[in-house]
Amino acid sequence: MASTKPGQRKLQILQALATMLEQPKGEKITTAALAARLDVSEAALYRHFASKAQMFEGLIEFIESSVFGLINQIAENEPGGVDQAHAVLQMLLGFAANNPGMTRVLIGDALVNEDERLQLRMNQFYDKVELACKQSLRLAVTQGHGQEADVAARASLLVSYVVGRWHRFAKSGFRHNPTEGTALQISLLLAA
C-alpha cells in the first residue's frame, strides 16, 4: 500500500473494514486486526482516521450518500406515490443484499461498544428514511391511495419491515437474502 494516494488509502481502509464486517460471526473488529488485514501498522490507520469511530463514520457517510442519492432518483423518476414507496423499500433491501458488511452497520451490530454518537447517527438515518416514506405515501394520498391519517403509522411500519429484513439477513449469517419474496409482501404493506 506504500504508493497509494491519501484519499485512496482512506478508501482502502473503509473497504477493508466493510469486508471484515461481512464475517457472519460478527466479532468485534479491532484496529490491530484491521491494520493486519491491510498489512500496515495501527499508526498508519491513525494517520488517516483519528479514531475507529471516524472509520465507522466513513462507512455511515457512504451508506447515507448512497441511500439518499437513490431515494432522490426514485422520487424524481417515479410519479406514483405507491410506486415510489415500493421502489424505496426494494432499494433499501437490495442495498443490504449487495453490502452485507454495511448491513451490520445499518442494524447497529457493528456499532456495539463503539462511540454512542454512531448509533445516534444511525437513528437519524432511520428517521430520514421514514420521512422519505411519508413523502411517498402523502403523494399516494393525493393520487387517491390511502388516507392522510394513516401516513405516519404506515411509514413507521414500512421502516420496521425493512429493518426486520436487515436483521434477519445479518443474524442468518447473510444466508437469508433480504430481497427474497418481498415484492408481494411490500405490495400487501402498501395496499390501500
Overview in brief:
The chain is mainly alpha-helical and about 190 residues long. About 70% of the residues lie in helices and about 0% in strands.
Write the layout of secondary structure elements.
Elements lengths: L5 H16 L9 H8 L3 H7 L3 H26 L3 H18 L1 H7 L9 H27 L8 H21 L10 H9 L2
Description:
Pfam families: SlmA-like_C, TetR_N. Keywords: Coiled coil, DNA-binding. The protein has helices spanning about 5-20, 30-40, 40-50, 50-75, 80-100, 100-105, 115-140, 150-170, 180-190. With about 190 residues, the protein is mostly helical. The protein has a single domain, classed as Tetracycline Repressor, domain 2.
Keywords:
single chain, mainly alpha, 192 residues, 9 helices, Tetracycline Repressor, domain 2
Helices and strands: which structural class? mainly alpha
Number of strands: 0
Counted up, domains total 1
CATH architecture: Orthogonal Bundle
CATH class: Mainly Alpha
Biggest pleated sheet: none
Radius of gyration: 18 Å
CATH H-level superfamily title:
Tetracycline Repressor, domain 2
SSE order, one letter for each helix or strand: HHHHHHHHH
Span from first to last CA? Answer: 55 Å
- β content, as a range? under 5%
> CATH topology, anyone?
Tetracycline Repressor, domain 2
Q: What is the averaged pLDDT score? A: 92
Count of individual helical segments? 9
List low-pLDDT spans.
Answer: none
- Fraction in helix: over 70%
Shape: elongated
DNA-binding region: 30-49
Pfam family, one: SlmA-like_C
InterPro entries: Homeodomain-like_sf, HTH-type_TetR-like_transc_reg, HTH_TetR, SlmA-like_C, Tet_transcr_reg_TetR-rel_C_sf
Domain HTH tetR-type: 7-67
